Amino acid sequence: MTKVVRLPLETLPDFPALHQIWQVLPQARLVGGAVRDMLNGMPASDFDLGTPETPQEVMKHLRDAGIGAVPTGLSHGTVTAVIDHRGYEITTLRRDDVTDGRHANVSWTQSWEEDAARRDFTINAMSCDRDGHVHDYFGGQEDLKAGQVRFVGDASTRIREDALRILRFFRFQARFGSGMPDQDTLDAITHGIEMIDRLSVERIWSELRRILTGPRVTETLNLMNQTGVLAACLPELSGQLPGAIQRLNALITSGGPADHSLRLAALLAGADCAPEAAKHCGERLRLSRADASLVLAFLQADPPTPDRVVTDGDVTRVLAETSRDVALGQIWLAEAQQIATDPTHHDEARWKRLRSQLESLPVPVFPLAGRDLLAKGIPPGPRVGELLSAIRAWWLQTGCRAGREECLTYLHDLRESFL
Predict the structure, then answer these.
(1) Rounded distance between C-alpha atoms, residue 57 and residue 93, angstroms
(2) Residues 227, 333: one domain?
């Protein structure tokens, strides 16, 4: 165990709440990400604590002190202290008795080192006591300084305990790593790939989404591709991953937004029958309805491009038929596709101009509804919809400039042919 210079806990915005917890649980320590981030000079946001007291003892001490205590995960030893409407998870020190790659049966321990040994990476296995002293049993401080993401103990053992650690490795490597990981770690990941199939798809997508919107995306995905992990997560792109990563890199380097749905669409855009592949991917990963709809919308055929959409009238028609956010995503994706496949003909200024038009022009609203036609004597029935569709098509062709009266005049001209 090593100690570093005392961390100035009293400067944390959450220190008053943490101080209340330490008043009743003096043996408790901050654990995991908060300690890592403070050591790395980054703002810490999630303050989880560990303690040798049992969950029942923790709840009693908190409630005796007038602090709200919620048994959020008693089977895993977790109690949430609620102070000023904010929750602080406090977990009893644990050891893993049995693991199956997804879940673990745990028992309590009094040993901080034993608890730290069950964590994934050395940089996440440090703890900090109430006096600001950092307890580091596995060299996490040195690894953090060196930019090395290293499993605690044997990498293969940690992966067998929980296969999600494979994906977590790449997420933490992107954020804290520098240079190539050591070969033993990559070998352990490669040998453990088949265990990814045991994970719930929700857990896979949760990690993949954070990787897609995190730092060093292209570098991380290339490393995932080299180890075979990316193909295991996105089998829809089997054999097409290098081109998919290149397209996503073009999206990122051209300044496209860090939206997980758009970036997933960029990966899937080159798949055979991309919309079908995207639909299958969304169903397999159980994307939310909103995310799945966005990915499919971004991949629709004939997206707006500087060659197709030239005048303000063209842009207005796009806005009439597609939401602004979706249209902008389609443009970013189309530009990335051109950069990836035909960079010599890429004209950045034209793409910027098109996005600027799309962002500045108001969304047109078709001025008629079915009730307007009924008021003009059109009998209820399918012809109301037919007439509305015909008038709307004319309204679109004229740049969405016609107002209500002009549309009603066009209705008058159509009535004879429809009636």
Answers:
(1) 13
(2) no
